[in-house]
Amino acid sequence: MTDSYREALVEGRFDPLAVVAQLVGSGLLTDHVVYERGQRWHVAGNPLGEIRVDARRVRSTFGGDEPWAGTPWRRIQAALDRVPLAGWRAYGWACFELASQGAQGAHQTLAHLIIPRLEFQVAQDEILVRALDDDTIDAARKLLGEPAEPSRADAVPVPVRTGARPYRAGVAHAVAEIGRDRLQKVILSRTVPIPFAVDLCATYVLGRRHNTPARSFLLDLGGWQAAGFSPETVVEVDGSGTASTQPLAGTRALTGDPDTDEALRAELLSDPKEVFEHATSVKLAFEEMASVGRPGTTGVGEFLTVKPRGSVQHLASRVATTLADGHTAWDALGAVFPPVTASGIPKSAAYRLIEELEEEPRGLYSGTVLMADSDGSLDAALVLRAVYQRDGRAWLRAGAGVVGASRPAREYEETCEKLAGVAPYVVPTEN
């Protein structure tokens, strides 16, 4: 290793979301990723180097331009192994098409990771600054000495009850395909355009204050801008090799009225369609995790619990394993990405139907935003409940799991319930 991070700890009482907005708007950061887990916000930017993946090659500024086929994850890991920096962390994203490998992804950058020069870990009582030089540390400390004011931005709610007829027709077609035994399940999504440019940071702060995500993220990297409140993780791997994934499948609204929400919760737990959809998802997640785990170590915990996630509540389970010798966190990510809860069963058939029925590539939607550590740990969030901005467009997107017992009207309604976790909090950019 040729270098290591300098560190400084700033103690106090902080509003983490206000600090995140302060950092992102300060001018200290260029390309950046914000990633929240466990009430700690990681803010990383100013790339020292990067890794980009397209449909054919993994290219890294740390050396290496290598072809890949099947899966690129071990090539990505090899590129990270060449990072000449002790204690590095990597941040970035991967698109849905990295796994589906359909024609829609042929000309996209499918994944983009950075190693930051500057990184903050923001909590309520302290902020850890990591940088490669003392001048940057000093500039960061000076900024953090200034008050971080909470955002006063006003949202313009986005209407989400659009496109009902084509979406219901797509669900009906998928149900017919399932009836012909061509697949068991598919997640079909729809896009809702936003008719104005979005202030992603203000939207993130406002939306996060009204959501209960498993992870949240804000990014401006590689042409993508996005802010989201992920309901579930793709995979979580610690430095000792314990890996888990958290499939969520089965949905009812959260209204804010305790009696109504409890009735909907009871309905969710007893609905045969929802329980079947969830159980089949857990079964495939178990098989995928077992493929990289030591024999006998893969198990299911928290089976059929209910997790509140913003505007909806989901059936949830956790599948965990101990990685087998020779397997790493990147193998675990490759085994489950994209999760069954965002693709279908079997995945190959679901990919084909998604490409047939959805009007445009998914890109970041149902992909992942992630952070990885030089100690072998990795944490990857599923990109759902998000707002996206790219190439002069802004949009929302949501889907629903379709099985043989699905009804088109109900699946459309489920997309509206999910969109309600983001649509009311979209803040326009100031003219």
UniProtKB/TrEMBL annotation:
Q: Where is the Chorismate-utilising enzyme C-terminal domain?
A: 166-418
Please name the InterPro entries in this protein's record: ADC_synthase (IPR005801), Anth_synth_I-like (IPR019999), Chorismate_C (IPR015890), Salicylate_synthase (IPR019996)
Q: What is its EC number?
A: 4.2.99.21
**Which Pfam family name is an example for this entry?**
Chorismate_bind
Specify the superkingdom. Bacteria
* GO molecular function per UniProt: isochorismate pyruvate lyase activity
Q: Which cofactor does it need?
A: Mg(2+)
Q: Keywords assigned by UniProt? A: Lyase, Magnesium, Metal-binding
Q: What is this protein called?
A: Salicylate synthase
Its source organism is Streptantibioticus ferralitis
